[in-house]
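May I ask for whichever protein you like with its backbone structure tokens?
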Amino acid sequence: MNNIATPCNYFNLGQCKSCSQIELPYERQTERKLYLLKAALAGANVTHPPINIGFKASKGFNYRNRAKFIVAGTIEDPSLGMADSSQNVIDLPLCPLHHPEIVSLAPILKEAISKYKLTPYDIKTRQGELKAIIVRVGAGTNQTMIRFVLRSRSLEKRVRNAAQFLEELNPKIKVVTLNVQPKPAAILEGEEEVVLTAANRIHETMHGLNNQTFHFGISPKSFSQISSQCAESLYTRAASEIAKNPATLLLDLFCGTGSFSMFASSDAAKSVGIELAESSISDAIYSANLNKISNCSYVVGDASDFKKSLIEVAGEASPDIILVNPPRRGLGESICRQILDLNPKKIIYSSCNHESLISDLKLLSGYQISSVEIFDMFPQTEHFETLVVASHYCE
């Protein structure tokens, strides 16, 4: 690539090189991802139809609805950014990938650190308290959540005062929490979460098939996609596939907060979502009630033994469509075998790692891939989301 000026001053100055594709025009970035996926599928001898681009970002910037700032520096001059390989924290408060609400908040967060004497943690000396600040913005509402990650609760009173200050300064801030992470390790957040505001969830609004509106509650520890605009497109596309042949029973595996199955709720007589994270299941149940969706059930369960959880909810009924959205490691042999045992008519696979996706597709023998689409969840980087639809050969 040429050393050309990009929209990111941090990249231009050599302070951050995380966006490995930022010097390429956006169209070239999506072409590169398309080529990468084609080559990987061909190399694995996976037969597939032409690959389509399901979603392109309108701008390629300001798309990240979540920011994870490592805190460093001093009370008087705090830094909000990321740690490099030498454990030095680079100050990146105005990253152009972040949602505009997050960008506007960064200076205010620094002010709160100084005003309420929230001592930044030093990674090398292991001194100080404030380790990180995590910010999440809700799509369609701009409601904002701020999580202060500290080594202990010793500064809880100061953080409470900072929370009140932030709420008064910006009415879009609805949730502020104190997360306790006492370990001197590269673990961003801990188990203990203290909610400091009246609300314990922010809300976002998204639109699905036929412009149907969905409202979702998001609590501090729940997983949600990094680009709400891309996620909306991804959920809608999966729902459109289910609408072609409505499901008697839809299994939503690794369901997170239940967005996939709620988007498809009009075309599935019953859906069962299974997820290990209790906070995500709590949000899924909350959101289903919020949207008055009664045919979606969500249970806490281990995906490695999902058939046990499925039987508890649906009895011996077998899903005719299984939708999976696993973490980067993919499904693996055991889960693929359980899926094959259930013999669904259709499998819809949403993946953030095309390498593990391809390994799983090879394990899911007996299914013919009918659709492969790239959803560009991560512009300026080499990463992307892939949605694959596979139908039983016997159909």
In short: Residues 235 and 260 are 5 Å apart (CA to CA). The longest helix spans residues 26-43. The first strand starts at residue 51 and ends at 55.
